[in-house]
Specification:
By secondary structure, the chain is an alpha+beta fold. 35% of the residues lie in helices and 24% in strands. The relative contact order is 0.11. The structure holds flavin-adenine dinucleotide (FAD). Flavin-adenine dinucleotide binds next to strand 2, helix 2, helix 6, helix 7 and helix 8.
Amino acid sequence: MNFKGLRVHRPESLAAVADLQRRFGDDAALLAGGTELLLLMRLGLTRFDHLISLRRLPGMADLSVSPSGDLILGGGVTHQQVADSPIVRQLNGVLAQAEGRLANLRVRASGTLAGNLAFADPHSDTLTLLSALGAWIESDGAGEHRRVPVTDLVTGLFTTVLEPGEIVTRIVIPARWLNASLAHERFESRRQRPMVTVSCAGHTDSSGRLDDVRLVVGSVCPHPLIVDTLAELLVGARPEEVEPATVVEAGTSAAGEIPVRDDEDGAADYKSNLVSVLVRRAVRDMLSSSATPRKDARMP
Ligand SMILES: Cc1cc2nc3c(=O)[nH]c(=O)nc-3n(C[C@H](O)[C@H](O)[C@H](O)COP(=O)(O)OP(=O)(O)OC[C@H]3O[C@@H](n4cnc5c(N)ncnc54)[C@H](O)[C@@H]3O)c2cc1C
């Protein structure tokens, strides 16, 4: 792809972005880290004469915690920023670790979480993780501000509910799930992208019993799917008392619920088997990190 003639605009306000979009219409695209967009343009799969960089918009690179404990990630926060953030590491080490392991350093350093969600490639760790954590996005477009749960964002392969030109300005992870126990499992394809992703979050009440569980399976289907049967199996139980057979059942029933198709990553049977194994691992890890140590337990 020849980038000759391409103009990159760097507006400093949402009003200036809207103005550029009015002027250039379909000839313009929003640009964050460019790890997907520039790749598509280089391969000649899409073409724009104008790119509107979101980098200089106020607050885009901010990472903060609200007074009620929600984690707020600006729309320009990169994967590596999350991985390196002492705040995220302290609040949810699994999230920091997962964001620090995906792709490669070059992609993590420029690629943003918002770009990952907006692009809606199903082979995404971030979509699965943020769905399990009950996160939502906040966006601005056509003078409207709205909030969309990540679970409702993606409508199909590479498609979302976002309107053309609508900007994801923030991603919010609510305190309730940020402080829950989280486990994330993935199996990577030869293309460096995950073939199967599983995130499991468990919330315990003050008596140490699980009062809410979220299991999300992604990458094998166009958008991440919530598996409700796990909550039916685990809510009300003490994590340390859950039988290994229940964990096996969780894996088997999740694999039965997720519609998996043959694709370039592998046969449906193979991927269903992976779903079952990764769900078992994620559930086991979530349970062991939310277990309350017994008072009479002795260190080995
Ligand atoms: C080699 C490779 C390996 C990868 N491996 C993984 C992996 O293992 N796991 C994983 O989860 N992901 C993986 N990814 C995906 C990676 O996370 C995304 O490429 C990255 O997060 C996209 O963000 P970006 O800022 O570069 O988006 P861009 O390329 O700048 O934009 C992508 C799309 O989103 C739109 N967009 C960007 N920001 C916004 C916004 N704020 N509001 C609205 N629309 C917006 C753009 O207009 C464009 O359509 C991989 C990517 C590559 C290239």
